Amino acid sequence: LADLYLAQNKLPEALGTLEKAQQQFGTLDEISFKRQQIYLKQNNLPLALKEGESLIANNPTEPRYVLAQAEMYASNNRLPDAIRVAEQALRIDPDNPQARLILAEVYRQQNQSEASQKQLKLAFENPSLDIDQQVRILVGYLKQLPNDKLNALTLDLAAATVRSHPKDAKAYSVAGDVQTLTGKKREARNTYLKALHFDNSKYQLWQQVVLLDAELNQADSLVAHSDRALELFPNQAQLWFFSGVGHSLKQQPKQAVSALEHGRRLAAGNAELQAQFDAQLGDAYHELKDNAKSDAAYESALTADPNNYGALNNYSYYLSLRGEKLEKAKEMSGRTVKQFPDNDTYLDTYAWI
């Protein structure tokens, strides 16, 4: 009956029912716990805390009640009490990660950074701390990265997550995100690969791997990882794009064109992505000495995005090599230099023309 009243938000009636139950059955933990929840709904913190202390007194070795009380103190700015009760929970169960998380939060509120970080790291090293809870905490830090004050701590927490959950793809995935945002690209790529070892069904992870391969300029890895990803996701245009880029880097223009043309067809309806394909196709067709298709690809890329400075530079340079449309080449190259006056590559092209 009390549950029915609670569901209907009839709190006084629910309290009355619980009082009658206590008179009939005596003090029961379930009654005390429900009464505490009602007091909280009524914003009656003193009575809720009193009920919590009663639960602890009746169950001094039950961490659940101790932790609930510590959290209540912490969320209501009763920080010394929160510390006292959380430490009581640790005396009952020295390895309890939730107690350490409560202490970490309280110390953070007290501006005790070193103490807070110590408790946080101890909690993260514990395999009994739920991986999803670790990920939620790390996501909070990820939103603040890169940050010189947080980089080292977040990397430590990510490493601890991997150590405490060494066979969980989520651990490696979030660790890879942390490494990416803190500039550790090579480590991030390898960490994402470990995540894929445990769960290769996440397209976003493959996307991160090939993107980092490209940024690291590792052509062999880019082609190999793109091909593996395409076995699972053959209709993802971006994977074909990276495959084409990889083959171009390996000076395999024929294979590059094949991948890029296929990916471009898959990107129908996405003008921005098709423009990226066209810019790469311009380069690849040039390597095949198919000037007509190279020029057409560059023109298509620049029609979609007139400020594609890579395409402007390469197109103008290749025109100048052929001694064709030199005024057009000079105008395009001039735009790149005007936008990036300190770019040596663009300056060299302009000087050549």
> What fold name stands as the CATH topology of one domain?
Serine Threonine Protein Phosphatase 5, Tetratricopeptide repeat
Overall geometry comes to elongated
How would a crystallographer describe the biggest sheet?
none
Output the structural class.
Answer: mainly alpha
Quote the distance from N terminus to C terminus: 88 Å
Rounded mean pLDDT score: 94
Give a verbal description of the structure.
Helix content is 78%, strand content 0%. It is mostly helical and 353 residues long. It has a domain of 70 residues: Serine Threonine Protein Phosphatase 5, Tetratricopeptide repeat (Alpha Horseshoe). Helix 19 packs parallel to helix 21. The mean pLDDT is 94.
Write the topology of this structure:
Elements: H1 2-7, H2 11-25, H3 29-41, H4 45-58, H5 63-75, H6 79-92, H7 97-109, H8 113-124, H9 131-142, H10 151-164, H11 169-181, H12 185-198, H13 203-215, H14 219-232, H15 237-249, H16 253-266, H17 271-287, H18 291-304, H19 309-322, H20 326-339, H21 344-352
